Amino acid sequence: MDRHELNKEGIKATQKRRLLALCIHWLVRPLGYLELTDIYKIDLANLPPLFEVPGYTIERANADDIKQITQRIKRDEPPVVISNLWAQGHHCFVAKSSGRVVGYNWIAFAAVQEEEYRYEPRADHAICVDAYTVAEHRGKGLHYLLLLSMLHFAAGCGKTVAYTGASLFNMVSWKTHLRIGWRLDFTFSWFRPYFTLARQPWRLSRERYPLRLDWSHHAWFAAQDQ
Q: What domains can you pick out in the chain, each with its CATH number?
């Protein structure tokens, strides 16, 4: 079955939520930045089967792959964020074309910082973070396959449930998750005002497992201090 036909009802419902959130987001934008992050979870016992994308391979990353990501793939995220994830022992999966890394995704079995969020999973749980695909290689299912490969890996390591966060405004991300079979656990929201000196975000909803807002240790800010 074409993956684009999967969970169409769930995608339609999330699109409606996104539209409403965008209206509020732009209404309050002169005062600050409003974020709504959907926290998804998936049972690792019944995952969809793996598949192939012609012309690409999916592999667990090694040190050379991490070096290639930090030196060759340009994005707004500081490269040292990737180096830190690797140094902390988290697991990276890469998509390669002609031997070059063109996409990657991370999965953590221990506490991990992703941008403003701190995730602290139980011993039998996993957290999926930090995905990216080079622009010219998008639209071919690589993000879907990378994510699915990581989930199969986690299941093989004895993990039972995986969690991930996806901004409600990031439609590409949550569509991929919904098509695989992730289900929404809760939505966490915050507002970062422009009119305060520290510009620390205000929590608009309650933190729940496995997430907490930790702006002072934002992965990008910590990277800039190194």
A: 3-224 (3.40.630.30)
Residues 156, 171: Cα–Cα separation, whole Å: 29
pLDDT by residue (tens digit) across 55-69?
Answer: 999 999 999 999 999
The string of pLDDT tens digits covering residues 106-117 is 999 999 999 999
Residue 54 preceded by cis peptide, ω within 30: no
CA angle 119, 121, 126 (to 5 degrees): 100
> Are the C-beta atoms of 18 and 173 separated by less than 8 Å?
no
In this structure, the number of other CB atoms found within 10 A of the CB of residue 220 comes to 14
Give which of 132, 145, 83 is closest to 105, Cα–Cα.
132
Cβ-based neighbour number of residue 13 at 10 Å: 13
DSSP per residue over 139-156, as a string? TSSHHHHHHHHHHHHHHH
Q: First and final CA of the chain: distance in angstroms?
A: 47
Tokens of 221: 């800010």
Q: Residue 117: what residue type? A: Y
Tokens 């807002």, located at residue = 213
Report the distance separating Cα 99 and Cα 104, nearest Å. 14
User: What is the C-alpha to C-alpha distance for residues 55 and 72, in angstroms, rounded to an integer?
Assistant: 20
By C-alpha distance, which of 184, 182, 183, 189 is closest to 207? 189
45 in Cβ contact with 151 (< 8 Å): no
